[in-house]
Specification:
The complex is a heterodimer of chains A (247) and B (391). By secondary structure, chain A is of the alpha/beta class. Chain A is 30% helix and 21% strand. Chain A contains six helices and seven strands. The longest helix of chain A has 22 residues. By secondary structure, chain B is of the alpha+beta class. Chain B has four domains: 100 residues, Pleckstrin-homology domain (PH domain)/Phosphotyrosine-binding domain (PTB) (PH-domain like); 89 residues, no CATH class; 94 residues, Helicase, Ruva Protein, domain 3 (Orthogonal Bundle); 71 residues, no CATH class. Chain B contains 18 helices and eight strands. Chain B has an eight-stranded antiparallel sheet. The two termini of chain B are 39 Å apart. The chains are: A alpha/beta (247), B alpha+beta (391). At the A-B interface, β2 and α6 of A face α5, α6, α10, α15 and α16 of B.
């Protein structure tokens, strides 16, 4: 019988190293030259087929890079983390080291960490050598890879190698199922959640995204109501349509 | 006191004299409000008391006449008049009246309603649309505006009913004052709720948020900060640099060096103005949005009001204001929408994680721009509660 396991993955790293671009490449296989900086955190999901019997679904938390956004602990209950640095910015590796230390200290001890050097397409501007990063990763027991969100090189491999490292055998095993009574939603600690058993999580889209379109509807009703009040004062203003979204 | 306006409607409320400002709020805080710098007061006359009430008639720069009846004890009223008289004298000596005259020319509203049509001049009352650009009389001093004037405003002007909105605002601003002399009646709020017209948006934001007064009382400060800190590099400027191409990147101006450097100047100037806060991600998106509708200096002062007064602690190092408001929002949902609260519990979604970016960017990166600007309009008019209502 095939099974689907769900894991929470968090992306961390300095601002502008390409965390959101890696996610966009992995989830939609796209690259965008113009991307807005992430505010707070964004969620996305993506499923990969590990073998005939197993699919792994990642619930991805893409976070803002700026120091002051660290306050809300986005890596709480994360099963795996991708700590990203930019191979053209040596300072970004220092920041990645800080993140790794923090994860080792504060996160779930069973967390799988992958150190990822992004922007590998910018070879001529490289500041961080492969050897340096790889050596550090080995010392700390991290997975390591280089990738380019722009060209797509190595992006899929990052997520596959993490999936292989995750405790897939039985959902209940795993060192840190601490306090977890089983694979119920709301209790996604330590191990993945088998979606065939968990009835509530049926659809791939996280709740927030699924409902954003519905959120506009009452808003427009409110605006329309205000409009009516104004119309009663000014007959020449027949309708003000909100128009179509232009971005 | 009570205030009698041109339609002989009277409102009772409180009059405050904080030199160099005169402010009034009606008791219900809704019917009418104003904040005048004293230098916009052209003339004060003591009226022969109607049935023994002490009354003053004030004439503003834009030709509005307001009658103020002081209902306190006679000595208090006399003292008020003495303080007002002295303060007005000092304003005149400092040359602030002259400054005010040049200052108001930077406002778009002055070009909608040319100087010739002050004081009940009816020649433009026929309702004809004010032509694009300015008339020959007013073209000497250019009004301030945003990148939208050059790179187009988001949305379809026809669908947004720009022309009708401008017409309604012209009528309002003509009879109830504008920029420094605006009287805020409920009608003003209603006009804001249907969405501001693009060309007036920046000025109305300034006026309603009060940043207009900061710009007025600190002439040249923005340029000075930029000049004094030219070439300086700090953690903030480095962080700003990373985000310049990541702020409303789909808007045409931010794909040009022109737009990018405008954004850079405002953000770095603010980081020097308020070094403790420096720069916080989300301010880039916010400022990029403001700059579509206002000039650099206008956006700079509006940013000051936003970070300092409207959303204190939102963009600070600790971001405590944002975090606190997320808790408030979550508990409001818990109390008022228990079903939704429960659902989020079941699917294990922490609401604040989703709502944080809404509050921080005033919804600008959470929905199509034209909708978001409607929210921003209401935000500057009605205050931060709007963020909770929309959320």
């Amino acid at each position: 019988m095939s099974r689907q396991l769900q894991f929470k993955l968090v992306l961390l790293g300095e601002s502008a190293v390409g965390k959101s671009s890696l996610v966009l490449r992995f989830v939609k296989d796209q690259f965008d030259d113009y991307r807005e900086s992430t505010i707070g955190a964004a969620f996305l999901t993506q499923t990969i087929q590990l073998d005939d019997a197993t699919t792994v679904k990642f619930e991805i938390w893409d976070t803002a890079g700026q120091e002051r956004y660290k306050a809300p602990m986005y890596y709480r209950n994360a099963n795996c983390a991708v700590v990203v640095y930019d191979i053209t910015q040596s300072s970004s590796l220092d920041k990645a080291r800080t993140w790794v230390r923090e994860l080792q200290r504060q996160a779930d001890p069973s967390i799988v960490i992958l150190l990822c050097g992004n922007k590998s397409d910018l070879e001529p501007r490289r500041q961080v050598s492969k050897e340096e990063a790889q050596k550090y990763a080995e010392e700390e027991g991290l997975l390591w890879a280089e990738a380019s969100a722009k060209s797509g090189d190595g992006v899929h491999e990052i997520f596959t190698s993490i999936a292989k490292k995750l405790p897939l055998s039985t959902p209940n095993r795993g060192a840190a199922a601490a306090g977890s009574s089983g694979p119920t939603p709301g209790n996604q600690r330590g191990t993945g959640v088998d979606l065939n058993k968990a009835s509530t999580t049926t659809d791939g889209r996280p709740f927030v995204y699924k409902y954003t379109t519905i959120i506009y509807a009452p808003l427009l009703v409110v605006m329309a109501a205000d409009l009516k009040r104004v119309q009663s004062h000014y007959s020449e203003l027949v309708t003000i349509e909100c128009g179509k979204p232009d971005r | 006191m009570s205030l009698v306006d041109d339609k002989e409607e009277s409102y009772s409320g409180k009059l405050y004299l904080f030199v160099p400002y005169l402010a009034f709020t009606s008791h219900d805080r809704k019917s009418v409000r104003f904040t005048f710098p004293l230098c916009v007061i052209r003339r004060v006359e003591r009226l022969n008391s109607r049935s023994g009430v002490f009354a003053l008639s004030l004439m503003t720069w834009h030709g509005m006449k307001i009658i103020v009846q002081l209902l306190g004890l006679r000595p208090t009223a006399d003292m008020f008049c003495a303080v007002l008289r002295d303060a007005l004298k000092r304003e005149l000596q400092k040359g602030n009246m002259k400054l005010m005259k040049t200052f108001v020319r930077t406002c778009y509203s002055e070009h909608l309603i040319p100087v010739s049509s002050h004081v009940a001049d009816n020649e433009r009352e026929d309702g004809s649309l004010i032509p694009e650009g300015e008339g020959p009389l007013t073209s000497e001093i250019k009004y301030l505006g945003g990148l939208g004037l050059k790179y187009k405003f988001p949305g379809d002007a026809k669908k947004l009913r720009e022309a009708s909105k401008i017409k309604l605002w012209t009528a309002y601003l003509r009879s109830h004052g504008r920029n420094l002399t605006l009287l805020r009646y409920p009608q003003c709020t209603r006009l804001v709720q249907v969405g501001l017209p693009n060309r007036l948006r920046g000025e109305i934001w300034e006026t309603l948020s009060g940043s207009l007064y900061l710009r007025f009382s600190n002439p040249g400060l923005y340029e000075k900060i930029l000049k004094d800190n030219e070439g300086r590099i700090s953690t903030s400027t480095e962080e700003i640099e990373k985000d310049l191409t990541r702020s409303l990147p789909e808007y045409a101006a931010y794909q040009t060096e022109d737009g990018i450097s405008t954004l850079r100047r405002v953000l770095t100037a603010y980081s020097y103005k308020n070094p403790e806060l420096g720069y916080c991600q989300a301010m880039n998106i916010l400022t990029a949005a403001l700059l579509i509708y206002m000039s650099e200096e206008q956006a700079f002062w509006l940013l000051e009001v936003l970070c300092d007064r409207l959303l204190p602690g939102y963009y600070s190092q600790s971001m405590h204001g944002t975090l606190l408001d997320q808790r408030v929002f979550e508990s409001l949902v818990h109390r008022c929408l228990p079903m939704i609260h429960e659902h989020f519990q079941v699917v294990d979604v922490q609401l604040s994680v989703a709502s944080l970016p809404w509050f921080l960017s005033l919804y600008i990166n959470s929905m199509p721009l034209i909708f978001a600007f409607r929210i921003v309009d209401c935000f500057f008019c009605m205050g931060p509660k709007v963020l909770f209502q929309v959320a």
